[in-house]
From TrEMBL:
Protein name: Protein NDRG2
Gene from which this protein is expressed: NDRG2
Organism, scientific name: Pan troglodytes (Chimpanzee)
Region feature (Disordered): 1-28, 304-341
GO CC terms: growth cone; perinuclear region of cytoplasm
Family label: Belongs to the NDRG family.
Main location: other
């Protein structure tokens, strides 16, 4: 039987007032499918994976992840990891519009660009955090390169290709709606959109006036042409790493309303997501309980149990539990944590 190994954790102190945050460095690399831009925050930490993010359609890494990664309680987590934020081609700030007839990569090809990023940075493993199209891309990457993915946080993933009915509905909507409205309908619920909160106004403004709207439409088309990821519980095609599945309870396709978040929980509920992420990392052996808030610590004691050993890292099993972080329910043993927020 494989032996349980203690993971050495060196906790770093949170930033003191007046201390400057870590610098970001943006790079571009050439890949067989064109160039890809990514931004690195922090420095590599020995024996730790990088956190690698992939954003949804209509957004870039900043508009998708800044509210989460700059959330106060998130700092104690991310300071222990280097972060790589990938921008889908043509989505980076200041990206020129692709020439007419440019063949935008499929989601599978976008996933195939990730090894070039990791090779360039000389990073061997990641914990992926993806939203919508970005979640699909990271899941595809994990299926193709299971040995390099230690964990996945998949927010609002739709693993299936559009069915015949979805296509008909999509075509009908396209007759009466603009591309920005269709993308907003993908990101947010109708209730949120008609509520027209400050957040919705902000994102409607960003997308409607995006100078790279033509590029965004290409990413949108690739998303709509995705194929099935084909994973089945207990089937041959499965994710081999621990997965935290997150569904915003107002996500456009989520019927079961359970808590009080929106279609984009990383924007509307960064606190809940941060706490769930802490549990997830702790289950993977990366967060000492001393690093967690007192409340989280006491809850985690009853939430997580070291269940299976895979390779040399202990994996956790998240038991069915309702908490302020939303509802957590059990998935396949040792691997899945489901969060609704
Ligand atoms: C980060 O610290 O990883 C981060 C900062 C700003 C935007 C997105 C991510």
């Amino acid at each position: 039987m494989a032996e349980l190994q203690e993971v050495q954790i060196t906790e770093e102190k949170p930033l003191l007032p007046g201390q400057t945050p870590e610098a970001a460095k943006t790079h571009s690399v050439e890949t067989p499918y064109g160039s890809v831009t990514f931004t690195v925050y922090g420095t590599p930490k020995p024996k730790r994976p990088a956190i690698l993010t992939y954003h949804d359609v209509g957004l870039n890494y900043k508009s998708c992840f800044q509210p989460l990664f700059q959330f106060e309680d998130m700092q104690e987590i991310i300071q222990n990891f280097v972060r790589v934020h990938v921008d889908a081609p043509g989505m980076e700030e200041g990206a020129p519009v692709f020439p007419l007839g440019y063949q935008y990569p499929s989601l599978d090809q976008l996933a195939d660009m990730i090894p070039c990023v990791l090779q360039y940075l000389n990073f061997s493993t990641i914990i992926g955090v993806g939203v919508g199209a970005g979640a699909y891309i990271l899941a595809r990457y994990a299926l193709n390169h299971p040995d390099t993915v230690e964990g996945l946080v998949l927010i609002n993933i739709d693993p299936n290709a559009k069915g015949w009915m979805d296509w008909a509905a999509h075509k009908l909507t396209g007759l009466t709606s603009s591309i920005p409205e269709m993308i907003l309908g993908h990101l947010f619920s109708q209730e949120e959109l008609s509520g027209n909160s400050e957040l919705i106004q902000k994102y409607r403004n960003i997308i409607t006036h995006a100078p790279n709207l033509d590029n965004i439409e290409l990413y949108w088309n690739s998303y709509n042409n995705r194929r099935d990821l084909n994973f089945e519980r207990g089937g041959d095609i499965t994710l081999k790493c621990p997965v935290m599945l997150v569904v915003g309870d107002q996500a456009p396709h989520e019927d079961a309303v359970m808590a009080d978040s929106g279609g984009q929980p990383q924007l509307t509920q960064p606190g809940k997501l941060t706490e769930a992420f802490k549990y997830f990392l702790q289950g993977m052996g990366y967060m000492a309980s001393s690093c967690m808030t007192r409340l989280s610590r006491s809850r985690t004691a009853s939430l997580t149990s070291a269940a299976s050993v895979d390779g040399n890292r202990s994996r956790s099993r998240t038991l069915s539990q309702s908490s302020e972080s939303g509802t957590l329910s059990s998935g396949p043993p040792g691997h899945t944590m489901e969060v609704s927020c």
